[in-house]
Every structure is written in C-alpha cells, then in structure tokens.
C-alpha cells in the first residue's frame, strides 16, 4: 500500500510532463473568419428553415449527444438537391443534408448545402 502511495505522485508528474510536451507539438492556429481556410463539413438533419432570418437549424450529433446548430444562409450559399440548385424555402424538416461551412465572427455560414435524402411528411427521414 505504501508503494502505491509513493507511485501516485510520480505518475501524476509524468502525465503532466507528457501533456505539456504534447501540447507544444500541436499547432495553434486561428482559422475563424479567415476566407482562405477550407470549409468544414458535417451531415445533419434539418429541424427548422428560417427564410425570414436567412438560416436553418439542424440537428447534429449521435444518440445522446445531439445538438441544435444554426447556420446562416447567404446569397453566396449554394443549395442543391440531386445536383440541381434549389432555394432555401425548398428545404424541409427531416431532410438529411451535408453542409460545407465556415465559422465566422457572425456565426457558422453555410457555403454549400446538399440534400442527401428528403424527409418524409412530419419531419421523419
């Protein structure tokens, strides 16, 4: 028992040193709001379409880790279904979408929204 007590502080110190060393090897970059960064991509389910606000709410995540996320839709956002351009008003709750987006100071801005599968009546995919 006494050996285990002496080992605990040494193990904690080792983990701390390794953690600091690993943190120094991870590049720390600021990409939010930079137009020259590649967009991120996620697949989500449309929850609400807000034409009056210029955006959509989507549900993303899995199982118990679901999150509601709002994306701004601008005049530059391309929305497509079956490789054809559609309007934001054509999106409906339950649609499974792939979103290419950028994080800006004003929020997450969708560059491309591709409808992968239409939702059924009542919002079920």
Task: Please tag this protein with its features.
OB fold (Dihydrolipoamide Acetyltransferase, E2P); 125 residues; five-stranded mixed beta barrel; 1 helix; alpha+beta
Describe the structure.
This protein is of the alpha+beta class and 125 residues long. It has a domain at 40-117: OB fold (Dihydrolipoamide Acetyltransferase, E2P), CATH 2.40.50.320. Helix content is 19%, strand content 43%. A five-stranded mixed β-barrel has the order 1-2-3-6-5. The termini are far apart.
What ranges have pLDDT less than 50 throughout 5 or more consecutive residues?
Answer: 20-34
What percentage of residues falls in helices of 4 or more residues?
Answer: 10-25%
- CATH topology of the domain at 40-117, by name, is OB fold (Dihydrolipoamide Acetyltransferase, E2P)
- The number of helical runs is 1
List the helices and strands and how they pair.
Blueprint: H1 2-25, E1 40-50, E2 55-60, E3 67-81, E4 84-85, E5 96-104, E6 107-117
Parallel strand pairs: 3-6
Antiparallel strand pairs: 1-2, 1-5, 2-3, 3-4, 5-6
């Amino acid at each position: 028992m006494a050996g285990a007590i002496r080992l605990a502080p040494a193990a904690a110190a080792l983990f701390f040193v390794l953690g600091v060393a690993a943190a120094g090897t991870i590049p720390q970059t600021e990409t939010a709001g930079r137009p020259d960064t590649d967009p991120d991509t996620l697949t989500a389910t449309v929850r609400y379409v807000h034409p009056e606000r210029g955006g959509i709410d989507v549900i993303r995540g899995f199982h118990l880790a679901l999150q509601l996320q709002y994306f701004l839709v601008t005049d530059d956002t391309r929305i497509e279904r079956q490789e054809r351009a559609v309007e934001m008003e054509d999106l409906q709750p339950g649609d499974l979408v792939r979103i290419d987006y950028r994080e800006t100071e004003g929020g997450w801005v969708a560059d491309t929204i591709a409808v992968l599968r239409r939702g059924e009546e009542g919002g079920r995919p």
